[in-house]
Amino acid sequence: MLVKSAEFVMSNSDVAKCPKNRMPEYAFIGRSNVGKSSLINMLTNKKSLAKTSGKPGKTQLINHFLINKNWYLVDLPGYGYAKVSKSSKQTFQKFITQYFSLREQLVSAFVLVDIRHDPQLIDLEFMQWLGENGVPFSIVFTKADKLKPKAIENHIESYKSVLLETWEDMPKYFVTSSSKDIGKEDVLGYIEGLNDNMELSNI
Ligand code: GTP
Ligand code: MG
């Protein structure tokens, strides 16, 4: 899929104030610093559309970006960042939970995990929560430029074996690198397929 236009629409901390139209949307979630905002910039070919930082805790709100004037990418704050104060952590958690529980336009979430790390409890628990709440998701392994192909394969295999302890099937997954432009067509092609299905089911 060709991204012809990508525009920032709004930031807010209240799911009730998110765009009211019925365009499909896709949300990026995962630990702070995993590369959610960078992935949005890679997918849209715009280096500074979503704000990124070397320090965790950069994205603090629900951010809507309108793509090709007919669907949204949504950048969310990360979880698991120890230095965020307890009260702001609770606020994030509340609006992230509300976003995933209430946002009817959400077609699928992408849970980002750093390909270099072994499966982390916080990510596994979050995926479990999405499953229990009926939110479809796929996994995006990020920062693939940091590992050699064989190590990537090994990490994915070990991730699979952990997930298959609780899931019947391995969720769909993508291997990406925002700095080396890896995985862009895979993710965009997947979204395009879901968008087409949505249009068919609306006929
Ligand atoms: P929060 O908004 O704080 O939750 O973080 P985030 O998940 O949006 O991460 P962000 O995109 O801001 O990236 C965090 C850091 O990781 C930045 O220094 C990025 O340059 C770096 N980074 C992101 N993606 C990649 C990647 O694919 N490869 C490499 N090498 N670095 C990356
Ligand atoms: Mg961010």
At the third CATH level, what is the topology name?
A: Rossmann fold
CATH class category label: Alpha Beta
Structural class of the helices, strands and pairings? alpha/beta
Q: Tally the helices: what do you get?
A: 5
Total strands: the figure is: 7
Question: Strand order across the biggest sheet?
Answer: 1-3-4-2-5-6-7
Cα-to-Cα separation, first versus last residue: 22 Å
CATH-level-2 architecture: 3-Layer(aba) Sandwich
- CATH H-tier superfamily: P-loop containing nucleotide triphosphate hydrolases
Total separate domains: 1
Taking pLDDT < 50 over at least 5 consecutive residues as the criterion, the unreliable ranges are none
Describe how the helices and strands are arranged.
Elements: E1 6-12, E2 25-30, H1 36-44, E3 62-67, E4 71-75, H2 86-102, E5 106-114, H3 121-132, E6 137-142, H4 149-163, E7 173-175, H5 184-202
Parallel strand pairs: 2-4, 2-5, 5-6, 6-7
Antiparallel strand pairs: 1-3, 3-4
The chain binds guanosine-5'-triphosphate (GTP) and magnesium ion (MG).
Structure description:
The protein has five helices and seven strands, in the order ββαββαβαβαβα. The protein has a single domain (6-196), classed as P-loop containing nucleotide triphosphate hydrolases (Rossmann fold), CATH 3.40.50. The protein is of the alpha/beta class. 35% of the residues lie in helices and 21% in strands. It has a seven-stranded mixed β-sheet, sandwiched between helices. The longest helix has 19 residues, at 184-202. The mean pLDDT is 94. Guanosine-5'-triphosphate binds at residues 32-38, 52-54, 56-59, 77-78, 142-143, 145-146, 177-179. Magnesium ion is lined by residues 36-37, 58-59, 75.
